[in-house]
Design brief:
By secondary structure, this protein is α+β, with helices and mostly antiparallel strands. The protein folds into 3 domains: about 160 residues, Outer membrane lipoprotein wza fold like, CATH 3.10.560; about 80 residues, wza like fold; about 80 residues, Outer membrane lipoprotein wza fold like (Roll), CATH 3.10.560. It is built from 11 helices and 18 strands. The protein has a 6-stranded mixed sheet with strand order 3-17-16-18-14-15. It is rod-shaped and about 105 Å long. The two termini are about 35 Å apart. The relative contact order is 0.16.
Amino acid sequence: MAGAALAACSSLPTAGPTASAVVHQQVKNAQRRYDVVDISAPVLAALQAQPKPSFQTAFRKYGKPPPPRIGVGDTVSVTIWEAAAGGLFTSSPFDHLTTGSHSVEIPPQVVANDGAISIPYAGRVPVAGHTAEQVEQIIQQRLAGKAIQPQVIVTVPKSVNYTATVSGEVVSGARIQLSPNGDRLLDLIAAAGGAKAPIYETFVRLSRGGVTVTIPMERLVDDPAENIYAWPGDVLTLVVTPQHFSVLGATGENAQLRFNAPRMTLVQALARAGGLQDQRSDPAGVFLFRYEPPAVVHALHLPPIGGGPDGSSPVVYRLNMRDADSYFLAQRFPIENNDIIYVANAQFDELQKFFALLNTLTGPIITGIVVNSAAP
């Protein structure tokens, strides 16, 4: 009868495989389909030791950007002072009657394709590739002997070369002119109005010099080392990617749930799903299904199986919640986007289902026998 009961249990309706089935089904038809790894302190340490995408690491060779240099398309403004009136830039025939210095502002000019601007009495002045201070010296040298002790101030009110672009999920995407003192990535995001979405759903993608790196915005905010200097030509894109995990099996709720915090742990995820059901669940059968990249598979000393995105392999992490220490491990085990948490039914629950079904089938027969036996 016990054997028949256990055989019948395998064909009863169920939410999923038992804990033993998850373990035994790793290999099917002589082919390894996934690996089951018990969550332990060494496993947790191996996961936490994995390097994460980093702006600081990827762009280590870049420090503070060099001083801005004028380029083609930039707008340049020039103001010229002469030590006394009556010089080249005298605007009135009566200016020679006044004393003191005299100044004139040249209308702002856009640097042409030849990399030069026009200055009266100085001709076409090459400015592309030079700093504002260098252009001042060039103009002063060209006006020497013509103007009265000329002094020149050059400014760049609008630059299209010393800029970075901020786009994506920001309040106001724009090409932002960098300041000579240097701007960091969060300065650019703030200048664009800030992010639209919650920080834990926003990722920051930086493209520079043919290299593109994406990190969570939460890490950019928390780790000052990631908030590196922006460089001319940077493209900073904010991408919103809602983070989800799914919970199935003997829990209070079976659903796909969104992260509600920058970081989530396994114990928090189980709590959001209503915890384990006392009458159904197997506390030793809490599983987390995930595709792990080759680096993690190697760190866990597992054979690579592949089959997942970018050569990742399927790994099933098992938590035995009959062990009190597992609750501390679950507090530190991180949940990732698209994780699947499955809580297996207890073996006793399957047996209960069988006897309930047996009672449904045999109950009317037994009742009829009892009634007939009681009849006179």
